[in-house]
Design brief:
The chain is α/β, with parallel strands linked by helices and 143 residues long. It is built from 3 helices and 7 strands, in the order αββββαβαββ. Strands 4-3-2-5-6 form a 5-stranded mixed β-sheet, with helices on one face. The chain has a two-stranded parallel ribbon with strand order 1-7. It starts with 16 loop residues before the first helix and ends in a 7-residue tail after the last strand.
């Protein structure tokens, strides 16, 4: 006895509209949740050069502290004093005690004392992971 199998007509008419809707919803979700921050890059700071500088690949969960040429300290584009910087860092350490990090961006023409003061504030407020950024000096890499 031969069994006849008929092809279903519903399998050939697959609707792609729900899949396109899902793709658009995912796109909108990622656009809305992405953070496009450039406020730390608005100050005109010229970084010193270093032979072992590595560009940042992803956005860190760090507080960026800028020191301009005259030695003024900025956080988030606003000028802060030493006491206010310490309060901000202590609050950040309270919210993230395991691994709050600070990136110090200092103009190469600035004095070193404001940078040392920022490092001292980091130590007093409990931040142990702080770095001073530099930019890569082209052609100066070691073999």
């Amino acid at each position: 006895m031969a069994v006849k199998i008929r092809a279903s007509s519903t399998a050939t008419a697959l609707s792609l509209t729900p899949l396109i809707d899902v793709v658009f919803l995912l796109l909108i979700f990622f656009l809305v949740t992405s953070e496009f921050e450039e406020e730390e890059r608005t100050l005109d700071i010229e970084l010193p050069t270093a032979t072992s500088a590595i560009p940042m690949v992803g956005k860190p969960r760090s507080i960026i502290v800028d020191v301009d040429q005259s030695g003024d300290v900025f956080v988030g584009g606003s000028e802060v004093g030493v006491a206010e910087l310490q309060r901000l860092l202590e609050d950040a350490v309270t919210r993230n005690p395991a691994g709050q990090s600070v990136i110090i961006r200092a103009d190469y023409r600035s004095q070193f004392q404001p940078v040392v003061s920022v490092m001292d504030v980091c130590n007093r407020s409990g931040v142990r992971d702080y770095t001073v950024t530099t930019k890569d000096q082209p052609g100066a890499r070691e073999p």
